[in-house]
Specification:
By secondary structure, the chain is of the alpha+beta class. It contains 29 helices and 17 strands. Keywords: Plasmid.
Length: 656
C-alpha cells in the first residue's frame, strides 16, 4: 500500500511505502558500503526524523525481486538505519518502526533517467544536509516566518513532537550550534545541554568541563546540580504529581521519555512535603503507648548508639495451634509437589496457594506477638522512608539514655528478676568481674563439647535472623540481614538475592514457629542439618567489600561471579560510554565495536553494550576475584592492599 501526493519541486510523485517493501537496489553504483556510522545515522533519524526521501524504482519485468517490493536506488544507508531502528523497536516521529512503518520515497521515471544514472548522481553530486543546518532552518521557520510547531509539522509531514525537539535544539546557544557544525559536539550532547534555555549555563557546562564530564548524563547533572530525580526515594515518596500541584518546578527532558528522569528543582519544597507526609503518618502512632514517635527523611539505625526492644510471643490458642500444624503440613507437601510439576498453570496455582498459606500463618502469629507495655514506655518509633520511596516504620527503637531501663525490663521479662536480689548489695564492678569469671569457666567447658557449641552458635544466629531476638542469646553474635538493593535496582541480576530468599523460606518452614522452641530444636537436630543451617546463616553475613578476605573464600570454593552477573541495561546507564567501550576491548571484542559505542546516543550505546557482552563473561573490577599474598593482608596493611587493588582495576565506575 502506498499513498501519493505531488511534490512542488519535482515531477516525480512522493509516496509513503512500507519499510518491509524496500530492498537495496542491485544496480546501485556504490558496490562497497561500510556500516560505520549507521548507528549514528539511526540516532539522527530517531531524533530528527527522515530529513530526505529515499529514491526508489519498481523492479523491471523479469527482474528477480520479492512481490510488491521497491528497489532503493538512492538512500541505502538510510534504509539500513531504518532497519536498525526496527530491530531495536525504536520510534521515529512518535511512530514505532515496524515492518509496516511508512517511509517517504520518490519514485523515479526510468524513461527519463536510468537507475544507474540516478544512483551515480546521488553518490557523486549530493552532500547530506548537516543536522546543524536542519536545526537552524526549523528555527527560522518559527522565528522569521512565525509558523507554529503544529503548522511546521503539518507542512513537512512530521510529528508535533519532532518539531518541538528540533525547535528546542534551535534555541541552544549559537556557539554550541557552531560546535555541532564543526563536529566538536555530538547531537546527543547537544540534546543534553538543551535541558535548560539558559545559554550561559549551557556554555559553562560544555566549555568549562573536562572530557569525562561531557557525557550527556554528566552534562544534565551539571545543568541541574541541586535537582532531585523523580527516581530518588524522596521524590517517589512525595510523588511528582503532588510536588507540582503545590508549586514545585520540574525540568522535563524533551529528548528523554523516561519519567523517572524528570528533575525536581526545589529540594527545599520536596523535603518540606516529605516531612509533612511523614508527620501525618507519625500522628496515627502516637496513641500506641510509645515513649516517643519521631520522623526522619534519612535514618540509620546503626548510628547514634541506638538499640532496640522486640515483641514477645505467647502460645497460640489450641485452635490456632492446630491450624498452624495443618498449614505447616500442607507447605511441606507443596514443597515436594513443586519438584515434579511441569505444567506452568498448575505450578502458578501451587505457588499461589503457598503464598496464601504463608500469609495466613503470619497473620495468626501476629495475633500472639506484641510489645510489652512497660518496655514500650522506654522506646519509640522512627517514621522514615526506605530506599525505594515507600513508608518505613521502625518500632522499638531505644535511645542511649533509656538503654539501661529497657535492658532491666527485658531481663525481668525473661525471669532474671528473681536473681537480682542477691546481687543488690554488690558493686557494678564486682558483678562485672564475677560474671566475667563465670564466662571464662563456662567457655572452658563448652570448648570440650563441640556438639553443644555448634548448637549454641546456630541457636544464636537463627534467633537473630528469623526471630529478631539476638538479645535473648548467650552469645554476642549477630546474623544480620542481606541487603537487597540490587534486586530492586537491577532485576536482570537478581539471581543471587532470589536464591537467598528461597533458602530463607526453606529454613523458615523447617524451624519451629516460636523462638522459645528453637533451643530444643537445635539440640535434637542432626549435626549435618545444623551444619547446613550454620552455613546459610554465616553466608548471609558475608561482606564482599572487605577484601581480600572474601577473595580468599571465593578462591576456596571455586567461585565465579560470571555465573551470577551479566552487564545489564541498569549497569550500562550508570557508567559512561567510554567505560563501555573500554570494557568491550577488555572482553576481546573488535575495535570497531568499541568505537561504535562512542558514536551513538547513550540509550543506543547501552543496548548495544548489553547485546555484545551477553556471552562474554566479562566482569567489572569490583566483581573480580583477586588474591594478594598473605603478608599483604595482615594488620594495618589491609587498607593499603585494598587501595593497590583499586588502582589496578582497569575501569573505575563513573559517577551516577
Amino acid at each position: 500500500m502506498t499513498t501519493k501526493n505531488q511534490s512542488e519541486s519535482t515531477k516525480e510523485p512522493v509516496s509513503a511505502i512500507r519499510l518491509s517493501q524496500l530492498r537495496a537496489d542491485p544496480e546501485n553504483v556504490r558496490r562497497y558500503e561500510s556500516d560505520a556510522g549507521i548507528e549514528g545515522l539511526a540516532a539522527t533519524i530517531q531524533t530528527m526524523g527522515l530529513l530526505q526521501n529515499l529514491t526508489v524504482r519498481r523492479p523491471r519485468p523479469g527482474e528477480k525481486a520479492p512481490k510488491n517490493c521497491y528497489f532503493v536506488t538512492a538512500g541505502n544507508r538510510r534504509l539500513k538505519a531504518l532497519n536498525l531502528l526496527k530491530s531495536k523497536k525504536a520510534s521515529v516521529d512518535g511512530v514505532p518502526v515496524t515492518a509496516d512503518f511508512l517511509v517517504r520515497v520518490r519514485e523515479i521515471d526510468e524513461t527519463a533517467a536510468s537507475a544507474t544514472e540516478v544512483s551515480l548522481i546521488e553518490n557523486t553530486s549530493r552532500e547530506n544536509m548537516h543536522p546543524a543546518d536542519a536545526i537552524e532552518a526549523y528555527g527560522r521557520l518559527a522565528r522569521e516566518e512565525g509558523l507554529t510547531p503544529e503548522a511546521i509539522a503539518d507542512r513537512h509531514g512530521v510529528s508535533h513532537m519532532t518539531v518541538r525537539r528540533r525547535l528546542k535544539l534551535a534555541n541552544v546557544s549559537p556557539n554550541l550550534l557552531a560546535e555541532l557544525r564543526k563536529d566538536a559536539i555530538t547531537l546527543e550532547q547537544l540534546q543534553a545541554l538543551a535541558l535548560t534555555d539558559d545559554h550561559a549555563a549551557q556554555e559553562a557546562a560544555w566549555f568549562d568541563a573536562q572530557e569525562w564530564q561531557r557525557d550527556p548524563d554528566e552534562l544534565r547533572a551539571a545543568l541541574s546540580p541541586e535537582a532531585a530525580l523523580a527516581s530518588d526515594k524522596m521524590a517517589r515518596f512525595v510523588t511528582v504529581e503532588v510536588y507540582e500541584q503545590l508549586g514545585g518546578v520540574v525540568l522535563r527532558d524533551l529528548f528523554d521519555d523516561d519519567e523517572s528522569r524528570i528533575r525536581l528543582t526545589d529540594r527545599t519544597l520536596l523535603h518540606r512535603l516529605a516531612a509533612a507526609k511523614l508527620e501525618q503518618e507519625a500522628e496515627a502512632m502516637r496513641g500506641e503507648g510509645w515513649k516517643w514517635v519521631e520522623t526522619a527523611t534519612e535514618y540509620n539505625y546503626h548510628s547514634g548508639g541506638l538499640s532496640r526492644i522486640y515483641p514477645k510471643e505467647t502460645d497460640p490458642s489450641p485452635e490456632d495451634a492446630k491450624r498452624i500444624d495443618v498449614i505447616d503440613a500442607r507447605l511441606q507437601e507443596i514443597e515436594i509437589d513443586a519438584e515434579s510439576i511441569e505444567d506452568d498453570a498448575a505450578e502458578n496455582r501451587l505457588f499461589k496457594e503457598r503464598d496464601d498459606l504463608e500469609d495466613e500463618r503470619a497473620a495468626i502469629m501476629d495475633r500472639y506477638t506484641a510489645y510489652d507495655s512497660a518496655e514500650m514506655a522506654t522506646a519509640g518509633v522512627i517514621v522514615t522512608i526506605d530506599y525505594s520511596g515507600a513508608l518505613r516504620i521502625e518500632r522499638g527503637v531505644v535511645k542511649p539514655g533509656d538503654r539501661k531501663e529497657a535492658a532491666r525490663l527485658a531481663n525481668g521479662s525473661t525471669g532474671a528478676a528473681a536473681d537480682e536480689a542477691p546481687a543488690a548489695n554488690l558493686t557494678d564492678a564486682l558483678v562485672f568481674d564475677l560474671t566475667t569469671t563465670r564466662s571464662a569457666a563456662l567457655a572452658c567447658e563448652l570448648a570440650k563439647r563441640p556438639d553443644v557449641a555448634l548448637a549454641a552458635l546456630v541457636h544464636n544466629l537463627a534467633l537473630d535472623a528469623f526471630y529478631h531476638q539476638s538479645y535473648a542469646s548467650s552469645l554476642g553474635l549477630r546474623a544480620g540481614v542481606p541487603v537487597r538493593t540490587l534486586k530492586a535496582d537491577d532485576p536482570a541480576n537478581a539471581k543471587p538475592f532470589e536464591t537467598l530468599d528461597a533458602l530463607a523460606a526453606d529454613w523458615r518452614a523447617k524451624l519451629p514457629s516460636r523462638a522459645a522452641d528453637l533451643w530444643a530444636w537445635c539440640l535434637d537436630a542432626k549435626p549435618q542439618e545444623l551444619s547446613n543451617l550454620m552455613a546459610y546463616l554465616l553466608a548471609a553475613q558475608i561482606d564482599a567489600a572487605k577484601r581480600p578476605y572474601t577473595d580468599q573464600i571465593a578462591q576456596a570454593i571455586d567461585f565465579d561471579m560470571a555465573d551470577y552477573w551479566r552487564p545489564s541495561k541498569d549497569f550500562g546507564k550508570r557508567v559512561s560510554k567510554k567505560y563501555m567501550a573500554d570494557a568491550l576491548r577488555e572482553a576481546g571484542r573488535e575495535e570497531w565495536e568499541a568505537k561504535n559505542i562512542l558514536d551513538v546516543q547513550k540509550a543506543d550505546a547501552v543496548s548495544l553494550f548489553v547485546e555484545k557482552m551477553k556471552d562474554a563473561r566479562w566482569l567489572p573490577g569490583p566483581l573480580k576475584t583477586t588474591l594478594a599474598p598473605a603478608n599483604d593482608i595482615e594488620g594495618d596493611d589491609e587498607a593499603e592492599a585494598d587501595d593497590e587493588r583499586a588502582n589496578d582495576e582497569p575501569f573505575p565506575l563513573a559517577a551516577e
